[in-house]
Amino acid sequence: MRISEFQLKDIVNVTNGKKLGRLADIELNNATGAISALIIEQNGKKFGLFGKEEEVVIPWMHIVKIGGDVILVRYGETEPNEDER
């Protein structure tokens, strides 16, 4: 798969079903050349005077599924405490 194909896909959080944004960049493992994380630019300010876009880093192990139109990821999950189990 090419990086240009990744960039066309929406990235959706399976925890809450919300769209996180689009792929802005990737992190590569220097030793293996494998992708170690996806960097997502979230919707918001676009290089405005009062701030820049927020970036979200999704480690490769948090990617659930790469489909034809979307990439499903786990983001923002917390471990349940003992009372919630």
From TrEMBL:
Pfam families: PRC. Coiled coil: none annotated. Residues 1-77 form the PRC-barrel domain. It comes from the Bacteria. This is PRC-barrel domain-containing protein. It comes from Domibacillus iocasae.
